[in-house]
Amino acid sequence: MTNEAKVLYDVQDNIAVITLNRPKQRNAQDLDLLNELDAIWMQAAADKQVKVIVLNGNGPHFSAGHDITKPAMDQVTSIDWDGEPVADLYEYEAEVFLGYCSKWRNIPKPTIAAVHGACIAAGLMLIWPCDIIIAADNARFSDPVVAMGIGGVEYHAHTWEFGARKAKEMLFTSSFIDAATAEKLGMVNKVVALDDLNAEVMSMAETIAKQPAFGLAMAKRAVNRTQDIQGYQNSLEAAFDMHQLGHGNCIAATGKPIFVNLEEMKKVTKDGGKS
């Protein structure tokens, strides 16, 4: 019996398609998935045939975020929870979460996220580094980790994506933002019927792929650098430090990096998914 890949990769003409492939777990992310995903992002970035990269997910949901039934940080044997857990966890998350996402954002090729169903907590970290987000009309977005004693996921782009007041509302209440609202707020480029999602995404990818690769890279660099001049990357790094303070508080109180109430988190996700 062989283990099925947690991330699939296919190149169609000049378009690379990356697919999260843990449908039974609603594409909840463990360390193996994240490492596979990073390797495939880098493979697509290095492939000269590829001009556009698409990210999607198998199954009923795009991603239910970190797999809190098997937290990625618990798989890191180098962390000594009786030694310097805050320092070790900081180093680990700086690489695997903030580091990976920042690296994906700056791949010099246009990237498109195709989102359907739930996109929760760390699921947001997978789509926010992408240049374009197209959502099915059943997509919904949430970051309920305040209930875990944390102020938001590690790649804290909430304010940039939703605006300050809507970001606070979502974080404070653990509520969902639907696809139509996400489009109005500017986080989503376009909302389409679920059955049309793949065709719409591929159509846009094909249109973009007709442009010169160097021009696309320079356009992306110009927009990203403009955001960074406005403080984008610095704000992510500052919020990441506060995220680690949340971990430190949880470790001091419980000896664990997060407060976990699985039953409450299942209620938040509506369908019993992992968040």
TrEMBL record:
CDD domains linked: crotonase-like (cd06558)
Highest rank taxon of the organism: Bacteria
InterPro entries referenced in this protein's UniProt entry, alphabetically: ClpP/crotonase-like_dom_sf, Enoyl-CoA_hydra/iso
Pfam families according to UniProt: ECH_1
Protein name, as recorded: Enoyl-CoA hydratase
